[in-house]
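Our consortium's second objective concerns turning raw sequence data into structural hypotheses that experimental partners can test. To show how far this objective has progressed, the report includes one record in full. It was chosen at random from the queue rather than selected for favorable results. The single chain below, 186 residues long, was entered without modification.
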Amino acid sequence: MKRRIHISLIGKSPGWENVLSQIGASWSVLKHTSDLDFTNSSCVIINKRLNRDESADLEKYLHDGGAVIDANGGLSGVTPYQKKLRKINPLSEPDKRFNHIGEINLSKSSKIFPNSELLSGTVYFDEKVNRCYAFIGIDSEQFYSGYQKSQTHFSHSQHPTVSERVSDSSSFPFVQLILQILIILH
C-alpha cells in the first residue's frame, strides 16, 4: 500500500501554517475529519478543541496507522495545565533526539503534560504500541505575532561595538522541534 507524506491541519492557524511552510512540507487544512485517511495524510496536527465525532474519527485514524501531533491534549485522555516558561533548552535534555535544537525562548504560557518531563513537560510521546501520538504544548502563534524586541550589543575585536534591536524569540528552534517530532512519528 502506498502512503503519501502529507500533513493535515485541523483548526486554521497562521502559526502552524507558517511552521509547515518553513519546513517545506506538503500540507492542507482539513475541513472534515470524516474524510481522513492515513494513506492520503501521514500526520494530523490538531489545533482546536474536538467534538465527539471528530475525536472518534481521529482515534480510528490513529488505530489505522496515522500519526497525530496534538496541540491541545484532547486525544490524550489527560488534561494539560498552563505554566509560564521563559525558555526551554533542548541541549540539556537527557533525550538525545533533541540535542541539536537551540534554545527556545517563550513569550506565552505553555501547556504542560502532567506525565512528561521531556522539554519541561511541553512534549509527550505516547509509548503504546501502534499509536503514533505526540503532544506539543508550545503555542506556535507566539513566534509569528506580536514580536517583542530587545537591544543587543555585538562586539568585535577589530571593529566598534554595534547596538541593534533584535527579536526576543526566533521561530527557527521551534520549527526544528516540530520537524524532529514529525521525523519521530514517521
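The partners drew two points from this record. The first strand starts at residue 7 and ends at 10. The chain has three helices and twelve strands. Both points have been shared with the crystallography group to help prioritize constructs.
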